[in-house]
Protein: M14 family metallocarboxypeptidase
Organism: Vibrio agarilyticus
Amino acid sequence: MDNTTVYPIGTLGQPWGDAEHLAWRNQTTIKRQYQDEVVPKILALAAQFDVSQYGALSYDTARYPLYCIKSRNWDAAKPTVLITGGVHGYETSGVHGALKFMATRAAEYQDAFNIIAAPCVSPWGYETINRWNPNALDPNRSFYENSPAEESASLIQLVATLGEVLVHFDLHETTDTDESEFRPALCARDGKEYEPDVIPDGFYTVADTLNPQNEFQAAIIQSVEQVTHIAPPDDNGNIIGAPVEQHGVIYYPMVELGLCGGVTQCVYGTTTEVYPDSPSVTDEECNDAQVAAIVGGLDFVLRQPR
């Protein structure tokens, strides 16, 4: 690939300045409606759960309220489960998979756990089908103190109210556009050379390097295998450049990279990665894979001695 033509904004080898950031933002467009596709599903759950607003994005506070969905009769004696979706707004099943779990399966687990879901952390990204926020910041590299990404900062503030979190599911997708758009844009923004990689064909999870919980990850993989296929390693034994540690599982240092998966000090944590561009899966099967991941993980945790 000719890296001089990878991305149309910026100059090869030079990080973006204000003009390039503005040019990037100006080429974004609204492609779908958060208020039509997501908010009604959230509010409909108020019949079963406590639904509340934990913030709003300053880009348009009326258009982009941030909601969470919580178990009723929250009990400090129960362990807490956090589900996050749409940290990357363009990863559709992260949003709708979280909502489907809450609508169809969460009630089964409320006797054992407090459950809280933030199903669409980045609604501007959802609408524009973008990995970044309007300031060309990646919310999923911005989970740290004094975060410059308000999507991340708002979720950090919410998590601070929860006390200890035992389990965290952060629901994501890896899409073909990661290579055709988002990684080239990242390299252009940072003035780096773009080196193409391979998009994995199938589902996988990302565990925390410092606390991988391999049996927990395996239980998730086994559950998801009932819904969709698991990504094999590439010719180098990697998935997205990271060594495959066990079937369908790679490790990332969550806190070091500012990932949402490091926003709690949970015992059991996973970042799910659905592959929606496979010709063998439907959008609903992608949502079902996210639900299966949560169910498999929670069933595993319930089997552990306490």
In short: Residues 1-5 have pLDDT under 50 and may be disordered. The chain has one domain: 3-302. The domain at 3-302 is CATH 3.40.630.10 (Aminopeptidase).
